[in-house]
Each structure stands twice: as structure tokens, then as C-alpha cells.
Amino acid sequence: MKYTIVFPEKVFLESRKFLLRDPNNEQFGYLLAGVSELEGEVRILVHTFLPAREREDLEYQSTGGICPSPRFQMKVYSICKKNGYHLIDTHSHPFDASGNVRFSGIDNKYEFGNGREGVFGFTAMWNPGMYHASIVFGQNSLDARIYRPDIRRPVPVDEIQVLRKIAPTSVLLLRHAKREIVPKGTILSSFFGNGRVEKKASVGTYGAGFGGNLDLLYSRQILAFGKAGQASLSSTTVAVVGAGGLGSIVVEALARLGVKEIICVDNDKIESSNISRVLGSQFQDAKKRIEKVKVLERHVKAINPDIRYTPVIDTILNPRALESLRCADYIISGTDTYSSRLVLNRFSIQYLVPYIDLGFGMETDGKHEKIVSAGGKVITIIPGNWCFHCLNEIDQRELQLELMRKEDRERQVSRGYISGVDIPNPSVIFLNMTVASLGICEFLNLLVPFKERSNYIFYDMLSTKLWSIKVKQDPECPVCSPAAEILGRGDLLALEDIRDSEQIRNFPKNM
Amino acid sequence: MQISLRKRRITLEISQLLVPMYGRDNLEWDPEDYNWIMIKQFWLPKGWVNKCSASPCYNTSYTPLLIEIPAGYPSVAPQNFYAEQQLQCGTDFIGHYFDRPGTGTSQNKYTDKGWAWLCIHVLSWESKTNLTKGDNLLTICKLIFDILSDKRNVRRNYYTG
User: Fold this and answer.
1) Within 10 A of A284 (CB to CB), how many other CB atoms are there?
2) Those residues with Cβ within 8 angstroms of residue A273's Cβ, 6 or more apart along the chain or in another chain
3) What is the pTM of this model?
């Protein structure tokens, strides 16, 4: 089983700053977390830091040791039990600047030294089902472990990820990490227990279809990102939502870049009108009405047979399809609908998965002979900062139309509120390619940073201009603000279907 | 046991906003899926009279009001609501808008249950974590009151809010 701890950057920096605030004294705090239980992996999703700030929060504190008070312990344990949260004890070794900080004998004794009498054993008994981990922060490194009640001892945490929104050099930890392995400023800055940096994907099996010669296959890219950057790509799983004009271009780019796995979600079938824009599609696919994700599977396998490709023939509005995204490291969506944005935005915040949303639009004159406006947007959501809701760009009327039941649609058509005829929008491949390429560029910049991030890019095709727009979090945002209690809650919250059921509702009789 | 944020939100809005406004005894809701909430006696704007002789609100300015809560709530605004079939404004019954039985094109599946259908075309909707700072079920109730207050718009079968 692989154990991963994922931090939003804000929480990581807040906890690290507090824990290393005094070079003469150890500090202590708790991290509250959600969890995402996957096949072969448990992701602990950190959302809140509770520092032991007050005198009564601590039993004792010195240069070489620290212990939380029983009152503080029980207060936090109760919060976890009541809310279904998981727990990480954090403390610091401010004296350790070695780059290889380790848990001390005192730490071992406090956490599990006396068998069931340690805090790990106690919480396992008091709140079964709660994951309990611990992290020790040194000046230049950290170490982490997680308790396994079945074997009554902790095991090392395999990886710690920090989802970052800002320029790489501003994160102290990375500058002091072992530089030779972590790509400078990678968004998912990853560390192994005992301060060791992530081992990158083994190239032993990957690339077998090319005789394992990845250098040859990706030689030009390696000149741009380095071998470490290429290794990051080949250990990354990306979910692509929508396999149409935008999504197919994204999928092809990811396949050629050499990611580890692509999960592609779409329930549409190829039509003849798609062939002008959907990469990999052919005349026969339209004739046979082949699913778009299947067409892309063939296309990806032809490009690189080593890439794992998982087709999901379903709409992303179906919670089951959404669930298939839990193992993704990144989500890129080209569906360009408000309803899919709504569910993906919340999913991204809930499971701490970065999400890039692509959209484009084009208008023509009345005769459809001349383009009068055209452009696109690339929006990058890094959980823990702002989200799609904060933008206030959801068109409520469009959203209602997308989600409308057949029955309601018929009623509204009969009243003349809506036309009842789907009017196709103009669409051309070069605009799709431009927007998809901008999105791929931002994705690569998350993984292997090479420029300042643009979290909201607006492209105007007619003036050939790009704008990078600054966005602030809405403190009352119902999705990403701390009060919304969605950030990092993972499996605790149900993935709900936002589509109204077509069945007749159970209305009570009037009177 | 996974938590449904939608149910948690609706429960909160009922207890913190609707109960103080309309009274607990005056409210009924779908206890399982939270797909509807009913205000048994919803006060109508001036000029409206309930002309349903079988109704306990007959000849008064009250109607039972049922609001359908969408699956995507609170991100998605409610758009369908249901009221008494025999509401009268001045001397008019607004048959077309209320889609009462016998009006020719009725597609309302709830006429047998005594409900007439209305819809709201909400163009702007912002829910917030602080219930009082954003849109919620109470703002929808107020919007319905405003729609009915604007009789001229109702007659035109037109409203954007």
C-alpha cells in the first residue's frame, strides 16, 4: 500500500512557519485531514492546521522535546471523531538542519513505544477507522510515518505533495531539498520519508514498446525539460474530460509528451461533423458511430503503446464517472459546459486535484459568412486558493438549460421560453488547437515549472492578444472557502448527482 | 457514512431561515431526498385571492406553496414552484401561466394532486457559505412574492429575476 500526504500550499506554509518559528524550542500542532482510499494507495488530504499555541495546549516544551497536553489531545481527537476527520501529529526539530531529519527515540516512545499505550495505539482503539500519521519538520527536510493498526506499528509515508500556486523559489523547503532529483519548483513537490526526495518513475518497464529507450523517444523534450522533467511526466496520471474538439487535442498532446496514464471521460459518439476537429477520428468512425473515447484509445495506442489509457464512456455528471477521476494527479476539461465545470470544480477542491478548464467561443455574422468574435479561456484551479465559483462566471440560465429534465424542457418549449432546437455553434480546429495548446502549456508548467503561472488566461483570436487575469478567493465561496468544509474532505463527502431525476417527484397532495 | 452537502445545506436553510420566517408548523418538506419544501400558508401580495372552495385558505390571501428543490442545489437555483390552482388576481384567473387543468396544453403532471405550476427564470444566483449573504430558499420565497406582486408581468407571462 502506498501512503501519500497531500497539502494545499497555504496549510503547508502555515504549519511549517509555526513549527519552525523558534530555533530554541520544538513546536507542536495537529493537521486535520480527509482521505481518498484508492486501490493500492491511500491519500491523506490535509485541510486544517491546529497549532498548539497556548501554554495549556502543551504538557512540556524544550529544545529537545515536546508533548501536547491531554486536554488538547482529547479536544482534537474529539473533533476528528465527531467530523470523520483523520489526523496528523506534527512537531519540529528546529536544531536539525541536516537535510535528513528523523523521528527521535522520544518521538517513538510518545507515538507507539509502549505498544497500545502510545498515542497511535490509543486513537486506533478509541476511533477505529481514523488514519493517524505524524510528520517531523527539520529546517531543511521532513519525515513522515503512518500507523498501521493491523501490525501495531507505523510505516513510512511514501510521498508528501504540496499543491503550489506561487513561484517555485519562494518555497524554502524546495531550495533546500535534494536538488538533483526534484525538478526545480515542481508543483507537486514530493518528498519521501526520512527527508528523502521522491524516487522518480522507474524507466525499466515503461517504454518497453520502444526497447525502453525513452531518451530516443523523448530526446527533444528532454532537451527542454531535462530527464527529471520527463520522468515526472511519465509518472503522472491525467484525466481528460471531454473527447471532442478540445479534449482530443489534449489527449494526443499528452500521449506524445509521454504521461503515464490518461483517463478519458466522454459519452458521445463520433458524428460526421466531428471529423473536422476531433483528432484521430475517421470517416468510418462516424459511419459506425464509434464512441469518441474509443477512437482516442486507438489513436493513443498508435502513438505510444506503452501509455495506459482508461476510457470512461459516461458523462462526467454521473458520480460513478466522477469517481474514476480520484486516482488522477491532474484534470484537464474541454467540455465547455457549466454543469461539468460545477462538478469538476468541487471535485478538485474536495480531492485536492489541480484542474485546468478549457473553453472557447466563436460568433459569426447573421449569414454565417464572417467571424465577428472568437477566443478562449484557460483557467487553472489549484485547490487551496480560489476556485471557479469565486469567478462568478456561472451563467445560471445556461446551467439550468444544461441540467433540464426532458419534461421541463418540453414545458418550456411549449411556453416559448426556449426554442427546443439545438443550434450548433461555429467551431474550427485552429481555435481548438490554440486553446488546447495554451492549456497543455499550463499543465506542463505545473509539472515542470519554467515560467510564472497564469491561472486565468483569456485569448482573443481577432486581435491576437492574450491576457493573464488575477483572481482572488471569495471569502464566502460555498466551495473553496474554509467555512464551506469541502477542501480536502475527500471520501467523507458524497459525490452527488446534480441532474434532476426524470421520475415523477413524490409531491404531497395539496390539502 | 458519507455526508450529502446538499441535504446539510437545505436542513440548515430550513432551520435558520424558513422556520423563523414561516413557523415550523407551517412547513413540510421531503424528509428523504429534500426534493421539495411546502409552505402550507404562503401570504399572497395585495389583490390575490384563493378561490379554491376546497382549500382551507378559501377566500383568503393565502395559498399553499410548493418549491421544487433541484438536485444541484445550492449551486443550481430552484426554477419550478407550485401553488393553488384557483388563485385569482383582481377579476382574472391567470390560466395560461398557472397551467391549470383544462387550459388546453397542460403538461403539469401534478394537477391531480391539486397543484398549478409556475416557473422562474433566474438569471443571477449566488449562494454563499454565510446564508444571509447569498441566495437561498428564503430569497426564492421573496422572489415568488415579488413575481406575484408584479401582476402585469405575470399576465404577460414574463419574468426575469
Assistant:
1) 9
2) A424
3) 0.90
